[in-house]
Amino acid sequence: MELLQPHLGNIRIPTQNNKVYKDECVYSFDNPETETGLYVSLTNFMGLGKDFVEKHFHKTGQAVYLHLRRLKEEVSSPPQGDGPEKKITRLAIGVEGGFTDETAKKFKYTDIYNVVVLPSFTNILWPNADLPEIVRQSAQAILDLPSASKLAELEALSGTWDGETRAVSKHAKNLPQLDNGVKIPPSGWKCEKCDKTENLWLNLTDGSILCGRKFFDGSGGNNHAIEHYAATKRPLAVKLGTITKEGKGDVFSYEEDEMVEDPQLVQHLAHWGISMRNMEKTEKSMLELELELNRKSSEWAAMQESGGALKPIYGPGYTGMVNMGNSCYLNSVMQMVFRVPGFVDKYYHCCEAIFNECGGDPAEDFNVQMAKLGFGLLSGKYSVPPPSGSPVDEDSPGICPQMFKTIIGRGHPEFSTKKQQDVQEFILHLLTLLERNTLNKGNPGDCFKFKVEERYQCGSSKKVKYLERSELILSLMIPMQAAVNKEEVAAYEARKAEAEAGGKPLGSDSLVRPKIKFFSCIESFTDPEIISNFYSTAIEKNVSAKKTTRLATFPDFILIQLKKFMLREDWVPIKLDVSIEMPDVLDLTSLRGGGLQPEEELLPESETSPPVPAMDEAVLNQLTDMGFPAEACKRAVFFTQNTGLENATQWLMEHITDANIADPFVPPGTERALPVDQDSVDTIVAMGFTPEQAVKALKATDNNVERAMDWIFSHPDDLEAPGSPAQPEFNDGDGKYKLIGFISHMGTSSMVGHYVVHLLKDGQWVIFNDSKVAISENPPKDLGYMYLYERL
To answer: Nearest CA to 571 among 368, 749, 305, 786?
Structure first.
C-alpha cells in the first residue's frame, strides 16, 4: 500500500459528468477479453491496452490503474439434432451476416479486477479493504458508471424503437375515426376484397381490413390496402398480428410513405373495440418479413458464397469487423478504403505519429480513431487462428470499432443511428470528414477525386459552353433495355406469373436475371442529352441544346456505383436484381473529354442578367410537401417545362439518385465561368472571414457554402497565398484500370439487408463478411453495387 501513497493526490472519483472508457482501449482494440486486459486510469479514466499504458504513464505521470480482465467460457448446450431450421429472430442488429438465430453459441463470463501501479505493474487484488478510501471509491465508481461507449450508443438510439428510428406520424394526433359501428373481432380476420388471411392491415380511420403489398417472391397480399388509400386518402393503417400488449405495432402512413409511430395507437384501436390487454403478437413484423425475404433470395447465397465451406484466412490485412447494429455498410466501406495505399500510408504506417500528436481526448479525435482502425485492420494483431482443437470454421473475433462509429456518426441524422445505410452516401460522408480533418497534411481521399466535363452546344448558333465539376464516385444508370437475355427473362417472368396464379411461387433457384454488359452502362452515361430550355447567350433566349458528359481527369482509384436503388411507379423503393458483366481490366480512355476544340466557338459571356425562369408555384409546393428537397423540385418543374405535377413527379422518380439533385439549382446556360453568389459570400464573412477568403473558397467548391467552409479550414496556406484563386487539385493519368474490390448488397432496400465486400489481396480474392474473413472461391463480380478500380 505504501506504493500508492505518492499518487493519491492525482486520483479522482468519476461522476456522471465524466466519460469512463472501460470497454476498449482508446488507441487500440484491446479490451477486457484481450489476453492482457484493459487498464483504466484512476486519474482521467482512459482505457488503455498493455501496449499503450506504459506510454501513457511516461507522458502523463498517471500511475494508478484499474485492470479489467474478463474470461470467456462457452456454455455447453444440448445437441440440436435434425430439428427445424435455425430461426431468424425479429431484430438482426449488431450480429454477423445481418441475422441472429436461437442456436447461437452461449458463453459465461468471469470478471477479474486488480489495482495496478506503474511502472512496476504491481498488482493489488480488488476488492481490498486495506486500499486507501480514495482508491476504493474511484475504482468502484469506474465499475458502477456506464461506459462512454454505452452512453454514446444510448444517445444515438434516443427516440428509436428496436434500433429503427420511426418518426411520429403527423396524422396521429388528430386522426379522424368514423363512427360507423364497425367492431374488430379478436381473430378470424380476412381481407374484405379477397380471401387473404395474412398480411392484413386495419385502416385506423374507417376500420376496413385489407391485404398489403405483394412481395417480390409472390407472397404477401394483393395490394388492396394501398388501393383503398388511393381511393379514400385515409392515411394510417396498423398491421394486424403485430400488435403487442405494450401498445406497439407496425403502423404505416401511406401519405408519408414510411413506417411511423402512433402515440395514440391504444386509443385508436379501442375505437374499434380492440383491447390491448388481450393482444398477442402472432404475425411477422415488416422487418421480420424483410429479413425472411432476404434469406430466400438467391443473391444472398451468391454474395456470401454460402454454397460451400470457405477457408478462413488470418494475419495482417485479414482482420474482420464486428457488426455493431446494422454497421455492415461501415465495415464494408472501411475494409475497402484501407485497400488503398494512401490510407495505409497515412493511418497505418504513420499511426504512431498521430497518436503522439493527440493533445486531447483520443476517443474524440477523428485522426486518432482512423489510425486506430488502420492498425486494427492491417497489423494482424486481432486476426489470429483459433486455438488448437477449435472447429475449423471458428471465427476470429476481429475488431469492434465502436469509438470510430460514434465519432463519424456524431451529429448526423442517419449515421448516428443503428439503421442500415447506403454505402455510397457513407463513402461521401467519410470523404467529407477526411477533407475537414486532414488539413494540409495530405488527404488520402483525393485519390478518388476526378473532374467531369459537361459540353453544351446551342441548337441555334452551334456555339458551345464547357463546364467542369468535381466528383468522387462515378455513378452509372443501369439501362434495363440493354439486357442481352431478354427472351430468357421474358420466359421466366411468364413461368413466374403462372406459378403465382396457381399459388405455388417459383423457388429462388430458378431465377433468371437480366444480363447487361458494363459498357452499356457507360454508353448511358455518355449518350447525348437534349436540353429543351437552354438559355443561349448568343441569341439571348431559350433554345434546345445538346449536352454531352465526359471525364476531364482520371483518378488514381475510381469508385463506380451501379445505381440499383430506385422508386417504382407506386413510390415503393426497389432494387434492380440484375447481373452486370464487370471486367477485371477496364479501359475508360474513350470517356476522356477534350475541352474546347479548334473548330468550336464559345458562347459569349452575357452582359445582362438572364431572365428568371417562371415556375409553377403550386406544383413546387405540392412536391415539397411530398418531402422532396426544394432544389430538386425546382429542377423537376424546370426540366418538365411547367407541364404539371405528374410529369414533375415522374422526373423526380427518375433522377432522385442524381448526385447533384439537392444542390442549388442554376438553369442551364446561365452559369458563369466562376460564379460567386453574394449571399454565400455574406454568410461566410459573417463567420469571421474576409470577403477575399470567402470568394476564393466558393470558387474552389462550386459555390457550395458547406464545402467552402470545409475548404477554408483544410487550406489555410492557400488562403494566405497571393495570386489567382486556388482550384481543386486532381490527379490525372491513363484511363486503364484493374478491379481490386467490390461491395455487394443483399436485400430489397438500401435501408434493410446486408453488405459484404470482396477484395483482391496478394493475388487472390478474399470475402469480408463482418468478422468472417475467408478465401473467396466464386467472387460474385456481376452482382456488386460499388466497385473499386486501381489504375494500371
So the answer is: 749
Q: So what's the pLDDT on residue 105?
A: 58
400 belongs to an annotated ligand binding site: no
Say if residues 290 and 748 touch (Cβ distance below 8 Å).
yes
Place of cell 459571356: 605
Q: Which domain holds residue 83?
A: 2-145
Number of domains present in the structure of the chain: 3
Which of the four pLDDT bands, split at 50, 70 and 90, describes residue 439?
Answer: low
Are residues 266 and 169 part of one domain?
yes
Using the predicted structure, report yes or no on whether residue 650 has a pLDDT greater than 80: yes
Residue 278 and residue 376: Cα distance in Å, rounded? 51
User: Are residues 89 and 202 both part of a single domain?
Assistant: no
Task: Identify whether the C-beta of residue 401 lies closer than 8 Å to the C-beta of residue 332.
Answer: no
Amino acid at 64: V
224 appears as a binding residue in the annotation: yes
Retrieve residue 759's grid coordinates. Answer: 477484395
* CA end-to-end distance (rounded Å), the chain: 64
The tally of CA atoms less than 13 A away on the side-chain side of residue 274 is 25
Q: What is the mean pLDDT of the chain?
A: 84
Examine the domain organization and report whether 212 and 102 are in the same domain: no
- The rounded distance, in Å, linking the Cα atoms of 545 and 530 is 6
CATH number assigned to the domain comprising residue 69: 3.30.40.10
Residue 61 lies in a domain: yes
Is 754 an annotated catalytic residue? yes
760 vs 623, more confident: 760
Distances, alpha carbon 2 to alpha carbons 101, 131, 138, 345, 361, in Å: 52, 10, 18, 46, 31
Q: Choose the catalytic residue: 171, 228, 745, 754.
A: 754
> Is the domain of 98 the same as that of 191?
no
* Better pLDDT: 628 or 253: 253
Highest mean pLDDT among 222-226, 313-317, 435-439, 722-726: 313-317
The answer on whether 191 is annotated among ligand-binding residues is yes
Asked if the structure places residue 128 within a domain, the reply is yes
Is the domain of 118 the same as that of 37? yes
How does DSSP classify residue 321? Answer: B
- Which of 687, 720, 753 corresponds to the end of one domain? 720
Instruction: Tell me if 49 is assigned to some domain.
Output: yes
Is the same domain home to 17 and 118?
yes
Is 328 an active-site residue?
yes
Report whether 194 belongs to an annotated binding site. yes
Rounded Cα–Cα distance for residues 768 and 619 (Å)? 47
In total, the chain counts a number of residues equal to 792
Per-residue burial over 621-660, b if 16 or more Cβ lie within 10 Å, else e, is eebeeeebbeebbbbbbbbbeeeebebbbebbeeebbebe
What predicted TM-score, i.e. pTM, was given to this entire model? 0.76
Q: Is residue 23 part of a domain?
A: yes
What does each C-alpha distance from 395 to 93, 223, 279, 311, 399 come to in angstroms?
Answer: 19, 43, 41, 11, 12
Distances (CA, A) of 474 to 231, 529, 681, 753: 41, 18, 30, 23
- 786 SS3 class: strand
Q: Is the peptide bond before 667 cis (omega within 30 degrees of 0)?
A: no
**Cβ-contact 21, 148 below 8 angstroms:** yes
Asked if residue 234 and residue 198 are part of one domain, the reply reads yes
Q: What is the DSSP string of 668-711?
A: TT---SS---HHHHHHHHTTT--HHHHHHHHHHTTT-HHHHHHH
CA separation for the pair 343, 557 (Å, rounded): 12
Tell the burial category of 362 from Cβ atoms under 10 Å away from its Cβ (0-12, 13-18, 19+).
buried
Catalytic residue among 25, 67, 271, 328: 328
Domain boundary among 667, 701, 720: 720
Structure confidence at residue 94 as a pLDDT band (50, 70, 90) = very low
149-199, pLDDT tens digit by residue? 888 776 665 444 444 557 889 999 999 999 999 988 877 889 999 988 888
What is the pairing mode between strands 579-581 and 515-517? parallel
**Same domain, yes or no: 178 and 140:** no
